[in-house]
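Students often ask why inverse folding is considered easier than folding. One informal answer: many sequences map to the same fold, so there is more than one right answer. In these notes we will look at a single instance of the problem. The structure comes first.
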Protein backbone atom coordinates (compact mmCIF):
# COMPACT_ATOMS: atom_id res chain seq x y z
CA UNK A 1 0.00 0.00 0.00
CA UNK A 2 1.39 3.38 -0.99
CA UNK A 3 2.13 5.60 2.00
CA UNK A 4 2.24 9.39 2.17
CA UNK A 5 5.41 10.32 4.03
CA UNK A 6 4.22 13.84 4.76
CA UNK A 7 0.89 12.76 6.27
CA UNK A 8 -0.94 15.17 3.95
CA UNK A 9 -2.10 15.30 0.35
CA UNK A 10 0.99 17.05 -1.04
CA UNK A 11 1.59 16.19 -4.68
CA UNK A 12 5.28 15.74 -3.86
CA UNK A 13 4.39 12.51 -2.07
CA UNK A 14 3.79 10.83 -5.42
CA UNK A 15 7.57 10.82 -5.86
CA UNK A 16 7.68 8.10 -3.20
CA UNK A 17 4.95 5.96 -4.71
CA UNK A 18 5.69 2.27 -4.63
CA UNK A 19 3.61 1.78 -7.79
CA UNK A 20 1.68 -1.03 -6.10
CA UNK A 21 4.56 -3.45 -6.48
CA UNK A 22 7.45 -4.76 -4.41
CA UNK A 23 10.96 -3.57 -5.14
CA UNK A 24 11.56 -5.14 -8.54
CA UNK A 25 15.18 -6.18 -8.49
CA UNK A 26 17.59 -3.40 -9.33
CA UNK A 27 15.64 -2.33 -12.41
CA UNK A 28 16.55 1.14 -13.57
CA UNK A 29 18.60 1.84 -10.43
CA UNK A 30 21.75 0.19 -11.76
CA UNK A 31 23.97 2.14 -14.14
CA UNK A 32 23.98 0.61 -17.61
CA UNK A 33 27.78 0.31 -17.75
CA UNK A 34 27.79 -1.48 -14.40
CA UNK A 35 25.06 -3.86 -15.54
CA UNK A 36 27.25 -4.76 -18.53
CA UNK A 37 30.50 -4.80 -16.55
CA UNK A 38 32.80 -7.80 -16.79
CA UNK A 39 34.55 -7.66 -13.40
CA UNK A 40 38.25 -8.32 -13.00
CA UNK A 41 38.86 -12.00 -12.36
CA UNK A 42 41.67 -12.44 -9.86
CA UNK A 43 43.85 -15.51 -9.63
CA UNK A 44 42.09 -16.56 -6.43
CA UNK A 45 38.65 -16.28 -8.03
CA UNK A 46 39.35 -18.95 -10.61
CA UNK A 47 39.48 -22.04 -8.41
CA UNK A 48 37.91 -23.31 -5.19
CA UNK A 49 39.58 -24.98 -2.23
CA UNK A 50 43.24 -25.24 -1.17
CA UNK A 51 46.29 -25.94 -3.32
CA UNK A 52 49.78 -27.07 -2.41
CA UNK A 53 51.63 -25.12 -5.10
CA UNK A 54 50.58 -21.61 -6.11
CA UNK A 55 52.10 -20.55 -9.43
CA UNK A 56 49.22 -18.45 -10.70
CA UNK A 57 49.57 -14.90 -9.34
CA UNK A 58 53.23 -13.95 -9.86
CA UNK A 59 53.83 -13.68 -6.10
CA UNK A 60 57.23 -14.00 -4.43
CA UNK A 61 57.40 -17.73 -3.76
CA UNK A 62 60.20 -17.28 -1.18
CA UNK A 63 58.01 -15.46 1.32
CA UNK A 64 58.13 -11.99 2.86
CA UNK A 65 60.67 -10.27 5.13
CA UNK A 66 58.11 -10.29 7.97
CA UNK A 67 57.55 -12.94 10.62
CA UNK A 68 54.03 -13.36 9.26
CA UNK A 69 53.85 -14.62 5.69
CA UNK A 70 52.11 -11.97 3.61
CA UNK A 71 53.50 -12.95 0.22
CA UNK A 72 50.18 -14.43 -0.95
CA UNK A 73 47.24 -12.32 -2.05
CA UNK A 74 44.36 -12.22 0.45
CA UNK A 75 40.99 -13.90 -0.01
CA UNK A 76 39.22 -11.44 -2.35
CA UNK A 77 35.82 -12.22 -0.80
CA UNK A 78 36.96 -12.46 2.84
CA UNK A 79 34.93 -15.64 3.43
CA UNK A 80 36.40 -16.48 6.85
CA UNK A 81 35.61 -13.01 8.22
CA UNK A 82 32.12 -13.06 6.71
CA UNK A 83 31.45 -16.46 8.24
CA UNK A 84 32.31 -15.15 11.70
CA UNK A 85 30.20 -12.03 11.12
CA UNK A 86 27.33 -14.28 10.06
CA UNK A 87 27.54 -15.99 13.45
CA UNK A 88 27.56 -12.64 15.30
CA UNK A 89 25.08 -10.68 13.19
CA UNK A 90 22.77 -13.47 12.07
CA UNK A 91 23.11 -12.45 8.41
CA UNK A 92 24.04 -14.91 5.61
CA UNK A 93 27.44 -14.31 4.05
CA UNK A 94 25.81 -13.61 0.68
CA UNK A 95 24.25 -10.49 2.24
CA UNK A 96 27.55 -9.07 3.55
CA UNK A 97 30.01 -6.78 1.79
CA UNK A 98 33.36 -5.92 3.39
CA UNK A 99 35.38 -2.91 2.41
CA UNK A 100 38.25 -0.61 3.30
CA UNK A 101 36.15 1.18 5.89
CA UNK A 102 32.52 2.17 5.36
CA UNK A 103 33.83 4.94 3.10
CA UNK A 104 34.66 2.40 0.39
CA UNK A 105 31.13 0.98 0.57
CA UNK A 106 29.68 4.50 0.25
CA UNK A 107 31.86 5.25 -2.79
CA UNK A 108 30.97 1.94 -4.47
CA UNK A 109 27.26 2.63 -4.01
CA UNK A 110 27.70 5.94 -5.82
CA UNK A 111 29.71 4.37 -8.63
CA UNK A 112 27.23 1.52 -9.04
CA UNK A 113 23.90 3.30 -8.94
CA UNK A 114 24.42 6.98 -9.84
CA UNK A 115 25.11 8.27 -13.35
CA UNK A 116 27.52 11.23 -13.07
CA UNK A 117 25.99 14.55 -13.99
CA UNK A 118 22.50 13.03 -14.22
CA UNK A 119 21.38 11.38 -11.00
CA UNK A 120 21.08 12.75 -7.50
CA UNK A 121 21.00 11.56 -3.89
CA UNK A 122 19.46 13.03 -0.76
CA UNK A 123 21.42 13.75 2.39
CA UNK A 124 20.01 15.13 5.63
CA UNK A 125 22.41 17.58 7.33
CA UNK A 126 23.84 17.79 9.84
CA UNK A 127 25.21 14.37 8.98
CA UNK A 128 28.37 12.42 8.16
CA UNK A 129 30.46 14.45 5.72
CA UNK A 130 31.60 11.62 3.44
CA UNK A 131 28.20 11.37 1.74
CA UNK A 132 28.73 14.85 0.32
CA UNK A 133 32.40 14.20 -0.47
CA UNK A 134 31.62 10.96 -2.32
CA UNK A 135 28.86 12.71 -4.23
CA UNK A 136 31.28 15.46 -5.27
CA UNK A 137 33.96 12.98 -6.31
CA UNK A 138 31.47 11.06 -8.45
CA UNK A 139 29.87 14.20 -9.95
CA UNK A 140 26.49 13.40 -8.41
CA UNK A 141 24.18 16.08 -7.04
CA UNK A 142 23.61 15.79 -3.28
CA UNK A 143 20.30 17.41 -2.41
CA UNK A 144 20.28 18.65 1.16
CA UNK A 145 17.15 18.37 3.24
CA UNK A 146 18.09 19.61 6.69
CA UNK A 147 16.91 17.75 9.75
CA UNK A 148 14.23 19.38 11.87
CA UNK A 149 15.29 21.46 14.91
CA UNK A 150 14.99 18.30 17.05
CA UNK A 151 17.29 16.47 14.59
CA UNK A 152 14.67 14.23 12.97
CA UNK A 153 13.82 13.69 9.30
CA UNK A 154 11.92 16.41 7.46
CA UNK A 155 9.65 13.99 5.64
CA UNK A 156 7.81 16.61 3.61
CA UNK A 157 11.10 18.16 2.55
CA UNK A 158 12.44 14.78 1.44
CA UNK A 159 9.29 14.10 -0.57
CA UNK A 160 9.67 17.43 -2.34
CA UNK A 161 13.35 16.81 -3.12
CA UNK A 162 12.82 13.43 -4.79
CA UNK A 163 12.49 13.21 -8.57
CA UNK A 164 12.94 10.51 -11.21
CA UNK A 165 16.73 10.80 -10.97
CA UNK A 166 16.96 10.32 -7.18
CA UNK A 167 18.79 7.05 -6.62
CA UNK A 168 19.71 7.00 -2.91
CA UNK A 169 18.83 8.52 0.46
CA UNK A 170 21.52 8.51 3.16
CA UNK A 171 20.45 8.39 6.81
CA UNK A 172 22.96 8.21 9.66
CA UNK A 173 21.41 6.69 12.80
CA UNK A 174 22.62 7.28 15.47
CA UNK A 175 23.45 10.48 13.69
CA UNK A 176 26.87 12.05 13.46
CA UNK A 177 27.39 14.75 14.76
CA UNK A 178 24.15 15.09 16.76
CA UNK A 179 24.27 11.68 18.47
CA UNK A 180 20.55 10.94 18.38
CA UNK A 181 18.79 8.03 16.71
CA UNK A 182 16.45 8.78 13.81
CA UNK A 183 12.77 7.94 14.26
CA UNK A 184 12.42 4.35 13.11
CA UNK A 185 8.92 4.77 11.71
CA UNK A 186 10.10 7.55 9.40
CA UNK A 187 12.89 5.37 8.02
CA UNK A 188 10.46 2.50 7.46
CA UNK A 189 8.13 4.87 5.62
CA UNK A 190 10.93 5.81 3.25
CA UNK A 191 11.86 2.17 2.71
CA UNK A 192 8.26 1.25 1.89
CA UNK A 193 7.64 4.12 -0.52
CA UNK A 194 10.89 5.21 -2.14
CA UNK A 195 11.90 3.36 -5.31
CA UNK A 196 15.62 3.85 -4.78
CA UNK A 197 18.07 2.67 -2.15
CA UNK A 198 17.81 3.79 1.46
CA UNK A 199 21.22 3.61 3.14
CA UNK A 200 21.09 3.49 6.94
CA UNK A 201 24.53 4.19 8.36
CA UNK A 202 24.80 2.50 11.77
CA UNK A 203 28.41 3.27 12.64
CA UNK A 204 27.37 3.93 16.26
CA UNK A 205 24.61 1.33 16.63
CA UNK A 206 26.51 -0.60 19.34
CA UNK A 207 26.00 2.32 21.72
CA UNK A 208 22.33 2.85 20.88
CA UNK A 209 19.09 1.82 22.53
CA UNK A 210 17.63 1.46 19.05
CA UNK A 211 17.76 -1.95 17.41
CA UNK A 212 19.68 -2.40 14.19
CA UNK A 213 17.95 -2.28 10.81
CA UNK A 214 19.84 -5.43 9.79
CA UNK A 215 16.87 -7.51 10.91
CA UNK A 216 14.73 -5.70 8.32
CA UNK A 217 16.78 -6.87 5.31
CA UNK A 218 14.25 -9.56 4.43
CA UNK A 219 11.44 -6.99 4.49
CA UNK A 220 13.01 -4.30 2.29
CA UNK A 221 14.99 -5.16 -0.83
CA UNK A 222 16.06 -1.50 -1.17
CA UNK A 223 17.68 -1.35 2.28
CA UNK A 224 21.45 -1.05 2.73
CA UNK A 225 22.82 -1.03 6.28
CA UNK A 226 26.35 0.23 6.91
CA UNK A 227 28.30 -0.70 10.02
CA UNK A 228 31.95 -0.53 11.04
CA UNK A 229 34.52 -2.09 13.33
CA UNK A 230 36.13 1.33 13.89
CA UNK A 231 33.99 2.47 16.82
CA UNK A 232 32.80 0.02 19.50
CA UNK A 233 35.20 -2.68 18.31
CA UNK A 234 38.19 -0.33 18.53
CA UNK A 235 39.66 -1.34 15.17
CA UNK A 236 39.77 2.02 13.40
CA UNK A 237 43.37 1.42 12.30
CA UNK A 238 42.47 -1.77 10.46
CA UNK A 239 39.86 -0.07 8.24
CA UNK A 240 37.10 -2.65 7.91
CA UNK A 241 33.61 -1.49 7.04
CA UNK A 242 30.53 -3.63 6.49
CA UNK A 243 27.49 -3.30 4.25
CA UNK A 244 24.45 -5.53 4.67
CA UNK A 245 21.94 -5.67 1.83
CA UNK A 246 20.03 -7.90 -0.57
CA UNK A 247 22.02 -10.50 -2.46
CA UNK A 248 21.55 -8.48 -5.66
CA UNK A 249 23.03 -5.31 -4.21
CA UNK A 250 25.94 -7.17 -2.58
CA UNK A 251 26.71 -8.91 -5.88
CA UNK A 252 26.92 -5.53 -7.62
CA UNK A 253 29.22 -4.13 -4.93
CA UNK A 254 31.49 -7.17 -5.18
CA UNK A 255 31.71 -6.74 -8.96
CA UNK A 256 32.69 -3.08 -8.68
CA UNK A 257 35.18 -3.27 -5.82
CA UNK A 258 38.93 -3.73 -6.40
CA UNK A 259 39.84 -7.43 -6.42
CA UNK A 260 41.81 -7.38 -3.15
CA UNK A 261 40.23 -4.48 -1.27
CA UNK A 262 40.73 -5.91 2.25
CA UNK A 263 44.33 -6.89 3.00
CA UNK A 264 45.44 -10.12 4.63
CA UNK A 265 46.69 -8.51 7.85
CA UNK A 266 43.32 -6.85 8.40
CA UNK A 267 41.46 -10.10 7.75
CA UNK A 268 43.61 -12.06 10.20
CA UNK A 269 43.50 -9.44 12.96
CA UNK A 270 39.76 -8.91 12.56
CA UNK A 271 39.15 -12.65 12.87
CA UNK A 272 41.14 -12.61 16.09
CA UNK A 273 39.23 -9.61 17.42
CA UNK A 274 35.83 -11.10 16.58
CA UNK A 275 36.46 -13.85 19.14
CA UNK A 276 36.22 -11.25 21.92
CA UNK A 277 32.58 -10.18 21.92
CA UNK A 278 32.38 -10.12 25.72
CA UNK A 279 35.32 -7.71 25.99
CA UNK A 280 33.71 -5.33 23.50
CA UNK A 281 30.36 -5.47 25.32
CA UNK A 282 32.16 -4.60 28.54
CA UNK A 283 33.79 -1.57 26.91
CA UNK A 284 30.41 -0.45 25.56
CA UNK A 285 28.88 -0.52 29.04
CA UNK A 286 31.83 1.40 30.45
CA UNK A 287 31.61 3.97 27.65
CA UNK A 288 27.91 4.56 28.32
CA UNK A 289 28.57 4.98 32.04
CA UNK A 290 31.36 7.46 31.31
CA UNK A 291 29.10 9.31 28.89
CA UNK A 292 26.52 9.82 31.62
CA UNK A 293 29.16 11.12 34.04
CA UNK A 294 30.62 13.43 31.42
CA UNK A 295 27.20 14.96 30.78
CA UNK A 296 26.70 15.68 34.49
CA UNK A 297 30.15 17.23 34.80
CA UNK A 298 29.72 19.45 31.74
CA UNK A 299 26.40 20.81 32.97
CA UNK A 300 28.22 22.64 35.79
CA UNK A 301 29.86 25.11 33.37
CA UNK A 302 28.15 28.43 32.65
CA UNK A 303 29.38 28.36 29.05
CA UNK A 304 27.50 25.11 28.37
CA UNK A 305 24.04 26.01 27.06
CA UNK A 306 22.76 22.56 26.12
CA UNK A 307 23.85 18.92 25.86
CA UNK A 308 21.85 16.95 23.32
CA UNK A 309 20.66 13.38 24.03
CA UNK A 310 23.10 10.84 22.62
CA UNK A 311 22.87 7.23 21.48
CA UNK A 312 26.55 7.25 20.50
CA UNK A 313 29.98 7.33 22.12
CA UNK A 314 30.09 11.12 21.84
CA UNK A 315 27.99 14.09 22.86
CA UNK A 316 27.09 17.31 21.09
CA UNK A 317 27.51 20.29 23.42
CA UNK A 318 26.11 23.74 22.64
CA UNK A 319 28.30 26.49 24.12
CA UNK A 320 28.53 30.25 24.28
CA UNK A 321 31.81 30.32 22.32
CA UNK A 322 32.78 27.04 20.65
CA UNK A 323 35.84 28.46 18.88
CA UNK A 324 37.39 29.90 22.05
CA UNK A 325 36.77 26.71 24.02
CA UNK A 326 38.17 24.59 21.20
CA UNK A 327 41.32 26.73 20.96
CA UNK A 328 41.82 26.59 24.73
CA UNK A 329 41.62 22.81 24.71
CA UNK A 330 43.97 22.50 21.74
CA UNK A 331 46.46 24.67 23.58
CA UNK A 332 46.45 22.10 26.38
CA UNK A 333 46.82 19.15 23.99
CA UNK A 334 43.16 18.09 24.10
CA UNK A 335 41.44 17.65 20.75
CA UNK A 336 37.66 17.78 20.37
CA UNK A 337 35.66 18.60 17.22
CA UNK A 338 34.41 22.10 16.51
CA UNK A 339 31.07 21.68 14.72
CA UNK A 340 29.92 25.27 15.12
CA UNK A 341 29.92 25.93 11.35
CA UNK A 342 27.75 22.91 10.55
CA UNK A 343 24.02 23.34 9.81
CA UNK A 344 21.91 23.33 13.01
CA UNK A 345 25.04 22.92 15.16
CA UNK A 346 25.92 26.57 15.71
CA UNK A 347 28.04 27.01 18.84
CA UNK A 348 28.50 23.26 19.22
CA UNK A 349 31.46 21.06 20.08
CA UNK A 350 31.38 17.31 19.51
CA UNK A 351 33.18 15.53 22.35
CA UNK A 352 34.08 11.85 22.22
CA UNK A 353 33.72 9.88 25.46
CA UNK A 354 37.23 8.97 26.57
CA UNK A 355 38.67 6.84 29.33
CA UNK A 356 37.88 7.90 32.92
CA UNK A 357 41.30 9.54 33.12
CA UNK A 358 40.87 11.40 29.82
CA UNK A 359 37.42 12.65 30.80
CA UNK A 360 38.72 13.98 34.13
CA UNK A 361 41.58 15.73 32.31
CA UNK A 362 39.05 17.34 29.98
CA UNK A 363 36.89 18.61 32.83
CA UNK A 364 39.85 19.92 34.83
CA UNK A 365 41.13 21.74 31.75
CA UNK A 366 37.73 23.31 31.11
CA UNK A 367 37.80 24.65 34.68
CA UNK A 368 40.83 26.75 33.74
CA UNK A 369 39.15 28.51 30.83
CA UNK A 370 38.33 32.21 31.02
CA UNK A 371 36.00 33.47 28.32
CA UNK A 372 36.07 37.01 29.68
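Output (designed amino acids):
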Amino acid sequence: MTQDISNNESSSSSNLANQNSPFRGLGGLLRENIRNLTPYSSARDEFQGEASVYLDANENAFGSPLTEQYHRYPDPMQYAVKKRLMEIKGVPTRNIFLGNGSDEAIDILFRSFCNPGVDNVIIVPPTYGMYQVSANINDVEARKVNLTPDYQLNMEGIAQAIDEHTKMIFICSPNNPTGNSINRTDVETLLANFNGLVIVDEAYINFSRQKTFIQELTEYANLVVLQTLSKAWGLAGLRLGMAFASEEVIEVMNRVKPPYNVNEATQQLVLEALQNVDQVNSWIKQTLAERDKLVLWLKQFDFVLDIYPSDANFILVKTTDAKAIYNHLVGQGIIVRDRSKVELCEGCLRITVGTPEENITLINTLKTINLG
